[in-house]
Design brief:
Blueprint: E1 11-13, E2 16-18, E3 25-29, E4 36-41, H1 45-60, H2 69-85, H3 87-98, H4 102-122, E5 130-131, E6 137-145, E7 148-152, H5 158-171, E8 175-179, H6 186-198, E9 205-207, H7 212-221, E10 227-231, H8 234-245, E11 250-254, E12 260-263, H9 269-276, H10 278-281, E13 293-297, H11 301-313, H12 333-349, E14 352-355, E15 374-377, H13 384-387, E16 394-400, H14 403-411, E17 420-422, H15 426-435, E18 442-443, E19 462-463, H16 471-474, E20 476-484
Parallel strand pairs: 7-8, 7-10, 8-9, 10-11, 12-13, 12-17, 13-16, 15-16, 17-18
Antiparallel strand pairs: 1-2, 3-4, 5-6, 6-20, 11-19, 14-15
Length: 486
């Protein structure tokens, strides 16, 4: 049954929840049931202007950039504690709004808290350097906050992506205007309120749900924005980069991927299948660093594909709020149709449907956006299903003969975000690591992300590095100072 909330969730501007100036709202849905779970204020250009001006005021005349770094760090640490205290509440909200399993949501909420903890500590480690110059005097550098940051995040990891953007920006003394995806605005709004509860001053954090074509466009073109940070599709990233050129705005982009999972013949096949399966089917495959191309050495292609199909067929697809569910719902009917379309395209191109590819038969899931996890065999790397980002639970199995061919196929894509290498030969692993053109690689692991380490892509997968100490570079400018002594 479709239900609606009585009042719209307001925008968060300068610490206050307010309705959109033009009164517009939109509905947000539960992907697992199709029901409306909230009505949300839709930010328009006037609201963007209000939020950006509030952030500019907080930056230029406010307390935040001038605050002792240690105090900023303590506020971020307090925010991390508040997030942890609300783990169950935030995870349940994330699962209802995003369709991901409750176990994944809980881990992601804790990951957001860990991100704020890390950058709480980083706040006092933003340092310059002294430089010996060929002149009588002292030369040194300062790292200063870049200013007002427009931050646009996707729907696949809402609270984590918000934390990745907001935490380093605040640690550096910047102010932010965050635009969450229209499909998943609820945990971003909750996170903004948590930051004010932790003690950030008025205007430092602003959250504007709304459409990319309206709120997003107004935000990236606003003359008082100094920096744009975006996570999402490569096509939108191109548009943002072009728009930023007019104002020479600083830009960081974390974009699409078509990452390889390179499996050599010396592995324990069942063990590797059991580990690497979640690298593509977690979050229903809606992950920019999903290993959606399994490159498998020819001598183990048949047993590996059989083991992969068997394990994939056993994945429990169902109610995301059930603790035993292993794969939840796709975000929307439109995205479900897109993924199904790619399965059809793959078969028309000559790929074999090894398993999955259809909706579950369970009548209880008929109202949601569910698709059985899908394995396509007999894939060539020039097929669309091997080159284009599907963003759903579909993996393409591609054979290779030797190390050189594995590297060539892995690199034969416009993307370069992540990947995994599976082998018992550490020498081979290190050789392949050096040759694969991608920003993040794991050896004998399906993990791409560590809050302490940089994350970002090569080629059309983006510009800049989030997380770790490298994220501080995105939100600071370097000022050189020379003091003459003669």
């Amino acid at each position: 049954m479709v239900t609606e909330t009585r009042t719209a969730e307001g925008l968060l501007i300068a610490g206050q929840r307010v309705q959109a100036e033009d009164g517009k709202t939109f509905e947000t849905f539960n992907p697992a049931t199709g029901e409306v779970i909230a009505r949300v204020a839709a930010a328009g250009p006037a609201d963007v202007d209000r939020a950006v001006r509030a952030a500019r005021k907080a930056f230029e005349g406010g307390k935040w950039p001038a605050m002792f770094a240690s105090r900023r760090g303590r506020l971020l640490a307090k925010a991390a504690d508040l997030i942890r205290k609300r783990t169950d509440e935030l995870a349940a909200l994330e699962t209802r709004n995003g369709g991901k399993t409750i176990r994944d949501s809980r881990a992601e909420v804790l990951g957001a808290a860990a991100c704020f903890d890390y950058f709480a500590g980083a706040a006092t480690r933003i340092t310059g350097e002294t430089i010996p110059v060929s002149a009588p005097g002292l030369d040194f550098t300062l790292r200063e906050p870049v200013g007002v940051c427009a931050q646009i995040i996707p729907w696949n990891f809402p609270i984590v992506m918000a934390a990745w953007k907001i935490a380093p920006a605040l640690a550096c003394g910047c102010t932010v205007v965050l635009k969450p995806a229209g499909q998943t605005p609820l945990t971003a709004l909750a996170l903004g309120e948590i930051l004010y509860e932790a003690g950030v001053p008025e205007g430092v954090v602003n959250v504007l749900p709304g459409s990319g074509s309206v709120a997003g466009e107004a935000l990236i073109h606003h003359p008082l924005v100094d920096k744009i940070a975006f996570t999402g599709s490569t096509e939108v990233g191109k548009t943002i980069m072009a728009a930023a050129a007019a104002g020479i705005k600083r830009v960081s982009l974390e974009l699409g991927g078509k990452s390889p999972n390179i499996v050599f013949a010396d592995v324990d096949v069942p063990a590797v299948v059991d580990q690497c399966i979640y690298s593509v089917f977690a979050n229903a495959g809606q992950d920019c660093c999903a290993r959606s191309r399994f490159l498998v050495q020819e001598s183990i292609l048949e047993p590996f594909t059989q083991a992969l199909a068997e394990r994939t067929s056993r994945l429990r697809v169902g109610d995301p709020s059930d603790e035993t569910t292993e794969m939840g719902a796709i975000i929307s009917p439109q995205q479900l149709a897109t993924v199904e379309g790619y399965v059809t395209i793959g078969r028309e191109e000559g790929a074999e449907l090894v398993c999955g590819g259809s909706r579950p038969e369970d009548e209880a899931l008929s109202g949601g956006n569910f698709l059985l996890p899908t394995v396509l065999g007999g894939v060539r790397n020039d097929m669309r299903v091997a080159q284009e980002e599907i963003f759903g639970p579909v993996v393409a199995v591609i054979p290779f003969k030797d190390e050189d061919e594995a590297v060539r196929v892995a690199n034969d894509t416009q993307y370069g975000l992540s990947g995994s290498i599976w082998t018992r030969d550490i020498g081979r692993a290190l050789r392949v690591v050096r040759r694969v053109r991608t920003g993040n690689l794991s050896v004998n692991s399906n993990t791409s992300v560590h809050v302490e380490a940089p994350f970002g892509g090569f080629k059309m997968s983006g510009i800049g590095r989030e997380l770790g100490s490298k994220a501080l570079d995105l939100y600071t400018e370097v000022k050189n100072v020379y003091v003459a002594t003669d």
